[in-house]
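In the current project phase, our protein records have gained a structure token line. A sample record follows, to show the layout:
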Amino acid sequence: MNDKTNTKVGDNTRLAHMGNNPRDFHGFVNPPVVHASTVLFPDAHTMATRNQKYTYGTRGTPTSDALAAAMNELEGSAGTAIVPTGLAAVTVPMLAFLSAGEHVLIVDSVYHPTRYFADTMLARLGVEVTYYDPHLGADITSIMQSNTKVVLTEAPGSGTFEMQDIPAIVEAAHKGGAIVMMDNTWATPLFFRPLDHGVDISIQAATKYPGGHSDILLGTVSANEACWEQLLDTHGALGMCAAPDDVYQVLRGLRTMGVRLERHQKSALTLARWLEGQKGVARVLHPGLESHPGHEIWKRDFTGASGLFSIVLDGEGEKEAHAFLDALQYFGLGYSWGGYESLAVHVQLNDRTVAHAPKEGPVMRLQIGLEDVEDLQADLARALEAVNAL
């Protein structure tokens, strides 16, 4: 954001102006998309000392710097690493802060690919992994070990949307000498700023709401001052840089993220409240609802809710889940979320160890897009009719 707008302003104003100063690029509103591998040096001394802003394409360009600056402003972070995928946004900081013989605590409601990475790569590297109940809060002290170096949180949890008491976990983890990472993709920094609550590293799949159009894969990892240099060093060592066109698309997506999230939030809450009273729905898992067990934590710490939540159907399992999905017209059947279109998926929860699946029936995760809410409600009504007709 340039000097004229570097005061406390609203979210949408910040999103429209942050990340670059048009005067740095001859007045053009958007920064250049720099495609770079080799960067030339003016002389041998500069080359030997690397005494210039850019040295090689993997170490940053004006394009990646613009997105990193924007994310730093959103997150309140000392630095942000841009990586090719949301999953890389989880794996890079884990590799940065964990070594053989150390221990990591991971919330049991975590994004499944994170669990797979932990159970395969981290285990192979000699890191001990323990999954913990998302409701543990300050009691996480009881399962910390002398070699616990990282506590990974995610709130709300993937698929079943358990809330975590992040400030309590942070206090307990820091007392035990561990750093805290948080996958904050659901809320984005507009609705929750992890670093403001003591979290050391904030993780986002920018594929989701920052990108917003289901056509980009990208991740961001934002760190506080104490963790930034170690994160940056590992990011460089892994060569985990993102492509300039993808970086630019996410920067462009940020400009409209605020207004899109307003629509996602409003439509999702409208549908969640309606679904609570529908035949065939055992429970609605949305932290913004008063009926949700984590609602008070959400209301205390978060300033909004995004467009993703789940419902638990009455029934045995796969038969009801498939009937529900196959009856949908406007909800696409596909993974990911955060784009403009609505999506639905049957959540598989057989990997849980302590945060067990709801017993009433199958869990259906709904991504509420930007369509007219009346059409989405009619679509869900058709799907529930199909289930109830079994």
Residues 1-6 have pLDDT under 50 and may be disordered. The two ends are 56 Å apart (CA to CA).
